[in-house]
Amino acid sequence: MKPLYLGSLLLFISHAQSILEVIQAATPPRLDLSTPTCKQYVFTHEFGNSYGSPYVGYYIPPPDCVYSTTIFNLSAASRGRQYDRLATLWLGDVEVWRTSTAMPTQTGIHWSFQKDMTIWDSLLRSQDPQKIIFELNNIIDGDRYTGFFNVTLEALYFDDVYEGKDGLHPAEYIYAISTRSSSNNTTSLFSLPGDSGVANLTLPRNTRTAVVSIMASGNAAEEFWFTNVPTEYINTFPENEGWLYGYSPFREVQLLIDGQLAGVSWPFPILFTGGVDPGAWRPIVGIDAYELPSFEIDVTPWLGVLTDGEPHSFALRVVGYDTSAKDGIGPIGENWWVSGSVFVWISETGEQTTAENFERDILSPSFDFQPTLGTRTAESGTVTNTSFYYTLTATRSLRVSSKITTGRHSRLVSWSQNVSYSNIQNMTDSAFNQSLKMVSSGTYSSSASNLVSRYTYPMNLFSAYKVQSEGATTNPGSVLCLVDRSKLNDGISILPFFTGTSVGPESLKTRQNVTSNYHWNSTIVEGTVGLDTMDGELWFSSSVSPGTRSGVQSYHHYAKEKDDALVVDDEGWGTIPVPSTEPLPVVEGEPEV
Ligand SMILES: *[C@@H]1O[C@H](CO)[C@@H](O)[C@H](O)[C@H]1NC(C)=O
Ligand SMILES: *[C@@H]1O[C@H](CO)[C@@H](O)[C@H](O)[C@H]1NC(C)=O
Ligand SMILES: *[C@@H]1O[C@H](CO)[C@@H](O)[C@H](O)[C@H]1NC(C)=O
Ligand SMILES: *[C@@H]1O[C@H](CO)[C@@H](O)[C@H](O)[C@H]1NC(C)=O
Ligand SMILES: *[C@@H]1O[C@H](CO)[C@@H](O)[C@H](O)[C@H]1NC(C)=O
Ligand SMILES: *[C@@H]1O[C@H](CO)[C@@H](O)[C@H](O)[C@H]1NC(C)=O
Ligand SMILES: *[C@@H]1O[C@H](CO)[C@@H](O)[C@H](O)[C@H]1NC(C)=O
Ligand SMILES: *[C@@H]1O[C@H](CO)[C@@H](O)[C@H](O)[C@H]1NC(C)=O
Ligand SMILES: *[C@@H]1O[C@H](CO)[C@@H](O)[C@H](O)[C@H]1NC(C)=O
Ligand SMILES: *[C@@H]1O[C@H](CO)[C@@H](O)[C@H](O)[C@H]1NC(C)=O
Ligand SMILES: *[C@@H]1O[C@H](CO)[C@@H](O)[C@H](O)[C@H]1NC(C)=O
């Protein structure tokens, strides 16, 4: 009897272990999530062949629940063969969460992620049912792409006491900069460059503070925008036609108010779970894959213009670098998905806000581009390109300020940004080998605080592809990928700060380095057991200034992964040292003679 019993126990254990938990490091939204005051399932939905068919339902807060904090817990399970997918969550016309999926295995994966939703309190608390839309465009086609995504969204409510100067004070109004299509049961994303990116909005006359929050990410020819080349270089290696995408590796997301630039973002480069090398991102996904970052622009200095009771245009635009344009600014490829929202706090006096001394100090970015083509001349005299090395650097400064009067109170407000960017690439082997050394960094300051906030995003990436002839079923391709990158933030999180969920500066240091060797056979989405190898390491350390005693002060996570498994997984309160991103070991071939 005993062996049989042991046998079935082992079977049980191995079944439980075969569901792989795929994680992203993130600061938990609260010290304890296990004892909510109230809790409800918002939806559970299976995304099969779901292109253009989002989940559409209604959100109503639980009746008679006394709460201040709302936390969403999004979970997903998948099994089979499938690409990574982007997904967006909407309350009406306002996008509140942009996420992406992990890539499944034949034995199944699972993940869950929690996000504090309290900044959207005025949308969430509405007693009129709020339309909730979750779009996850997935494809199931017979026996090739078989992975469904089963998604569950749960809401947890806590009655936290906020102890900041003004307690908890979420924005009174939130307006969408989107296509505003929820009445048609669809999401409201702008697809750039095709769509207008414009919404005309009328703000309350007594607006005291206004902040625009923007989500933007590149898809298709724009997914790896940071590895793109200036358009005139896409045919550098004619034997590898279609491999290089154009419009440069520089992108600027812009906010324009009545046609005038109000602020920019030089975006964080997201690597999705199918990105560069699908073997590199399991069981630890790339930084921010489950919660794509938004960025905020304080438009309070514009209130003199915006509080006249008339509609004003808020436009979102994405531009690239063009070597031949006078100001360097050029178009982009297809496509960027963008949306925004304007968070508005009003003054209790009810009087119209006025402003004087409105100043805009905005210069075009300055660019420096230095290309070097390596060539070889055959005995016949034929010249071919053997390498393409280039550096592109850019900087920009802008500042908008005014003196705002709300009621009897006057204050000087400003939005100021200094951003810089450097992108160095070397392409060899017809660009099948590509190395990238990129750093995007900057500072900003807003009307929230005198503190200057700063960020640095270094990324070193090398990939070497071997692609056999089309139609090959045995080892049609492989990729060696090395990536070492960090995300370092220090400063004020503008929306949580104005909301009162954060009362001071925050600091985040995270680094991820991965070496992966991936071989696909019949489809690129599935690797080859026995040939694939992966080693990775992740450091995450944060310190936060929560507005409530139930909030997290500091948190760390260190993990090490090997071949689809975590071999070290250490998380807890308190910070840890995070080593800096390092140059990659030399992986190019020998210099050619
Ligand atoms: C929109 O979605 C809601 C919620 O699922 C549903 O009740 C309604 O019938 C849908 N409207 C249309 C036009 O499909
Ligand atoms: C999130 O939801 C998943 C699935 O329902 C559940 O397993 C997990 O415990 C939840 N996490 C929290 C913090 O509630
Ligand atoms: C997804 O849900 C369906 C229907 O409930 C179920 O048959 C399937 O096993 C689920 N898939 C996963 C990976 O949990
Ligand atoms: C709803 O769909 C119809 C038909 O496609 C379209 O004409 C209309 O503009 C859409 N409305 C919104 C608000 O997106
Ligand atoms: C915004 O207003 C302008 C001027 O009235 C108008 O031309 C434009 O079509 C409007 N755009 C949208 C998206 O409503
Ligand atoms: C070498 O690269 C340059 C720049 O992309 C291109 O104009 C030229 O045609 C290439 N030469 C060959 C022989 O492919
Ligand atoms: C941007 O740079 C200018 C000039 O160096 C400086 O005066 C300003 O304080 C900087 N702003 C921020 C937000 O760092
Ligand atoms: C693909 O790789 C798997 C090993 O992971 C192997 O079992 C299978 O036979 C391969 N398929 C083809 C068509 O080579
Ligand atoms: C990550 O970087 C550290 C050096 O800080 C190095 O020791 C380690 O081997 C690297 N891991 C991988 C998988 O590249
Ligand atoms: C491409 O990279 C691979 C892997 O590092 C290396 O073996 C090969 O020599 C490189 N080829 C060239 C032309 O640089
Ligand atoms: C680019 O890589 C090639 C091949 O490894 C090498 O010969 C060349 O020196 C590299 N260029 C630069 C500027 O590093």
From TrEMBL:
Protein name (record): Peptide N-acetyl-beta-D-glucosaminyl asparaginase amidase A N-terminal domain-containing protein
InterPro entries: PNGase_A, PNGaseA_N
Highest rank taxon of the organism: Eukaryota
Signal peptide: 1-18
Record-linked Pfam families: PNGase_A_C, PNGaseA
Keywords annotated in UniProt: Signal
Domain Peptide N-acetyl-beta-D-glucosaminyl asparaginase amidase A N-terminal: 35-356
Organism of this sequence: Xylaria grammica
KW Signal (keyword) present: yes
